[in-house]
Specification:
This protein has about 240 residues and is α/β, with parallel strands linked by helices. It is built from ten helices and eight strands. Strand 2, helix 2 and strand 3 form a beta-alpha-beta unit. The longest helix is centred in the last third of the chain and has 19 residues, at about 175-190. Bound molecules: 2-phosphoglycolic acid. 2-phosphoglycolic acid binds next to strand 8.
């Protein structure tokens, strides 16, 4: 699967131009999902345009509320996301863990609230540069993966995004990605006592120059693309040729 994470970028015009250009350039294949995650304020416009162009791409939200016990100011509930046509939600992105101080119990609530509404969580994990240097990557990932319950497995996609690779132009080496994806897949099998393999996508400075090498690995089940997804022709090429 190929996921476009627009982060806090865009405008009505840019969304219209992007969807128009993608609809002219992309060749959607049933077995390869394409997911567009615009800022939440543009979800409605995006789904209208996707429908109008009969474009087979799915919609994902960058936000989902974890506390559903009260009508929180600023909250976007899973029901609203379903109403807007969302099928996926990015949960646990390092930027939200850092800037919104998201903790494990909020992340569990988000994952469960999403699954309850049939929204597939794209659960992001990854180590920072300090943890990479001091050799604690696996401990960090294990802690982030420990909140996964076996009941989530058929709904969940894990996105491995090393924090040092996000938006830096410095993607992880394929050997690093392979070793880490293998570790994630095995660890999830162990903690949830299953033989089933969970899809693990890679994110962090994926672009037109490196997507082929990264996606050629059998252990990489998709790409989560930030900055490089803003350019519609490049994004379509990455989708078509990966
Ligand atoms: P990037 O972002 O491709 O710009 O590094 C990826 C992400 O944060 O999802």
């Amino acid at each position: 699967m190929i996921i476009a994470n627009w982060k806090m970028n865009g405008s009505k015009d840019l969304i219209k131009d992007w969807i128009t250009s993608v609809s002219e350039n992309i060749k959607i294949q049933d077995e390869k999902e394409c997911v567009f995650c615009p800022p939440v304020g543009y979800l409605n416009l995006s789904i209208e345009l996707i429908k109008e162009k009969e474009l087979g791409i799915k919609l994902g939200s960058q936000l989902i509320e974890s506390n559903l016990s009260q009508p929180l100011t600023g909250g976007v509930s899973p029901e609203m996301l379903v109403d807007l046509g969302c099928e996926y939600a990015i949960i646990g992105h390092s930027e939200q863990r850092t800037y919104y101080n998201e903790n494990d119990s909020q992340l569990i609530n988000k994952i469960e609230a999403a699954i309850e509404e049939n929204i597939k969580p794209i659960y992001c994990i990854g180590e920072n540069s300090e943890q990479k240097k001091n050799g604690t990557k696996q401990e960090v990932l294990m802690k982030q993966l420990d909140l996964i319950k076996s009941s989530y497995l058929s709904h969940l996609v894990v996105a491995y995004e090393p924090i040092w690779a996000i938006g830096t132009g410095e993607n992880a080496e394929v050997s690093h990605i392979n070793e880490t994806h293998a570790f994630i897949k095995e660890y999830i099998k162990t903690i949830s006592n299953t033989a089933n393999e969970i899809p693990v996508v890679y994110g962090g400075s994926v672009n037109l120059n490196n997507y082929k090498e990264i996606y050629s690995s059998e252990l990489v089940n998709g790409l989560l693309i930030g900055g490089a997804s803003l350019e519609p022709i490049n994004f379509s090429i990455i989708y078509n040729q990966s």
